[in-house]
Amino acid sequence: MLLRFVSTALCIVAALAALPALAQKAHVPGGLVHEAEFQRLWAANGDRWAEEDEEIQAKLDALEKRFGKKPNIIHILWDDMRYGAVGHRLLTDVSGYEAPNLQRMAEEGMSLTRMYTEPSCTPTRVAAATGRLAVRSGMIFPIFPIHRMGLPGSEVTIAEVVDDTYHTGFFEKAHFGDQEEGYVHNQGWDEAIFSLYNQFAGQGFNGDAENQGYSIAYSPDGYDKKYFFDDSFRPLDWMWTVEGFEGEAPAKEFSTPTTFEEYQQANARMWERTKQFVRKHAGSTKPFMLQWWPNLYEVADESAMRPWTTQHATASAESIKRMDAKIGELFALLEELGIAENTIVVAMADNGPMVPIWPETGQNGFFRGGKNDVTEGGIRVPAFVKWPAVIEPGTVVGDIVHVSDLFNTFARIAGRYDQIPTDRVIDGIDQTALLVKGDKHGRRDYVFTYKGPALGSLVKQQFKRHFALSTGALAGAEFFDLYKDPREENPLMAEFLWTWAQFDHIVGRHRQQIEEYPHTPVARGVPYTGVERRADP
Amino acid sequence: MLLRFVSTALCIVAALAALPALAQKAHVPGGLVHEAEFQRLWAANGDRWAEEDEEIQAKLDALEKRFGKKPNIIHILWDDMRYGAVGHRLLTDVSGYEAPNLQRMAEEGMSLTRMYTEPSCTPTRVAAATGRLAVRSGMIFPIFPIHRMGLPGSEVTIAEVVDDTYHTGFFEKAHFGDQEEGYVHNQGWDEAIFSLYNQFAGQGFNGDAENQGYSIAYSPDGYDKKYFFDDSFRPLDWMWTVEGFEGEAPAKEFSTPTTFEEYQQANARMWERTKQFVRKHAGSTKPFMLQWWPNLYEVADESAMRPWTTQHATASAESIKRMDAKIGELFALLEELGIAENTIVVAMADNGPMVPIWPETGQNGFFRGGKNDVTEGGIRVPAFVKWPAVIEPGTVVGDIVHVSDLFNTFARIAGRYDQIPTDRVIDGIDQTALLVKGDKHGRRDYVFTYKGPALGSLVKQQFKRHFALSTGALAGAEFFDLYKDPREENPLMAEFLWTWAQFDHIVGRHRQQIEEYPHTPVARGVPYTGVERRADP
What we know:
Largest interface: A-B, 39 and 39 residues
Helix content of chain A: 25-40%
Strand order of the largest sheet of chain A: 14-3-13-11-2-10-6-7-8-9-22
Strand content of chain A: 15-25%
Distance between the termini of chain A: 81 Å
Structural class of chain A: alpha/beta
Low-confidence stretches of chain A: 9-24, 208-216, 303-311
Oligomer: homodimer
Mean pLDDT of chain A: 88
């Protein structure tokens, strides 16, 4: 009894003492400044994980020996889709899209049931590229024409991390903004065709001087002007997609479509270039890393809207079908080139669906909310990994993964973990163990989600706390059990008793660490510098 | 152009002319009086289906030759669970129960993504037993103590259909009411231990004369009696579970527990008898048919309520875990007895979860509503079929199936289709083709769902019409697209234009057929006749 009391007392003391600067037993790989909560996890599990890492490194070394080089890495990231909308038929039969190649990917690879992203495009893409929550670089919302802001040059991307040892290519939707320092080819990619904004900016068709009736969304003259006395409010033009090569200046405007046909042609040309990139480097002694982040949702294609012929006939469904066909082509190409076994393909959405425009992308399935919400509907996405040399077909993993973890995981697999900067907070966690050893080998049990500049929610294990929801439940704090209540509709009364303070401690350490490592201000300035406009758009 | 007009005109005429008494080309198997909508389906597809049936019969004959007898049939039917709560991890990881044996069943057998039931226990169980919507025998709601009503003796159950050629056994929850003519052993089962009401009636503990404080739900004396002047409102006692053998009278009270321990003991004894039944008939020249409809939800077990130790720690979760363990035992027994290959096991829930008592059984997942609702949340359930000799592992089928179809399908597989009565409407459809040939070989594209005595909703293909919902959408008619909107939250504006009248035609034919074949009145009278009470309860 006394022993039990002592041990309980020690536990309480241990919990109270668990401040950021914990004495760590095993050295954190790469000496990274991890987010405070992971430092706690490492303090408790680091010895075991360090040991496991040795075993995994031996496996990676054996693979490198077998294939003569490190694995190729392909990251496919698309827009606005809920968990379950593509993949296994037990989900998609209820409500989903016809995407046979993603279904095959689920069958032949790994499906993740708890892949978290940020709640909108720019933040998720920045987190994937930098391994850091987007709030840390000021990239807190989707950048639109003409925001005059972009990814700070001081951010270190995964392309910069693997540079020298990997051929790096980036195609289609970056959405890192319109600042030169943030252009993809200035952020480490050897070769890039990338959009500054999202795909809708490619469907505004503002550049067509001859046909002033063009745009799906915008025309400087297409409005009633009865009470009009500010011409400067409406931009006359903007730039959409740029082509650049690392170290070569200036970059060139690749496409700013003036018609839907030009938009489609631009996408077709980018797709050809994507495949060329794979072909070009397949036989190289250096592996390649490809970010193919395709433009989804061809909203300008009125003819694709709501035919009554197919199961999910919407413009979105048609776009997804086209993307899925390309994914099929890509896998066929890897097979044809004999590199499928040693290529990791990660495919996922960047955030939840745009529920307000149902049925276009708005089906929220298990979860409540969608894009821009910090409920699960906004941040929990379909995600699959195929890596035939390592991952068993039909693998399912229920571990929590955050999109920023890809940064660390790719760095690890590329053998470049030591290139991750140690002068800033890294939110990403190396999840190689999860890929190699499967279910229950993840290393994250929490996710911070920002909504714009403010912390919106915090997941810890099966619990979730919201900071800006309003269900009328508790005074300023709402707690949910995600296993029992994935729609976050039933605030917990029993569990808030002990979770409230625990969540406050985690957030307190998070904020304390931000004081020590302040956010980088977003890049701001004249847009489109360093890009030559196309003479013939 | 003229030809096209003529052909369009003919189509319209064909649609208008499609009344119930259509001239059928191929003869409907068994000469059944199918529900009017199926008669239309048969008129259009009967030739093809009759041909397919010959191929399937050849396959069934070959199986019979190989195994020396027709397949054994086991139907497992439990309470109140939403689609996705058990089975594949891509569903259960989001929100579900730990049920490894049902997960294995999904992996090794067939999962159905559109298995429909009636919206509550008694109706679903009656539909499964009789192949008819429960409204046709007046069994329109869950029968409770002491309703003095039950299944009419004139109903012909699946046990009566397969009698003589099959050993038939029934164990645990029947819920067919308290009328002698409806007792399970009077409805064709050779051997039966069956509850008259549901499992909660077994946890009322009203029979304990010595401890008047017993009940979880009911005690005749346990209330404030300040304004009390009607003693007869509160029953002093009731009967729960009865044991009977076909042709042997009287039956015997099997158990009416007076404590939670007795309730558990009764369930344990019934489980032993279930296994004995399988053992006893495994080596027989005659196959067996077993209805094991286990009692789920041990709500009296206060100690199981909400511990913080497991993923879904609720009394429900603990009950499901125990049931799943029994399913594992059952499969092990079939293996041990060498009869697994030639045994069909169908496992499913009887309706959606009781959402108002979240988190006990209330997780609605993809769908809106639960038990007693005619939204998908009430009537679309997890369902699996294992039949190793026929069904490939990991099969998924998206065809619509209704619980009443099991009646016809079992009759067909048992070679007793000619024993189905032809003097009444049969709602069930033979779905043997779906089991044998898999996805896209179902034969139903519609489901009528009653809420009590009134038609509540009608599913046709991906569309659904409600008759008693109130979303403020349209004047008396609400239409949904279940593929795009499985939660039935966004009433359709475009499609109601052409679906409204079509739905009316289907309902009109349905009602017209009811006039021709009126419902059978429910059995009513003194309860518990023909049962000897146990001396020592």
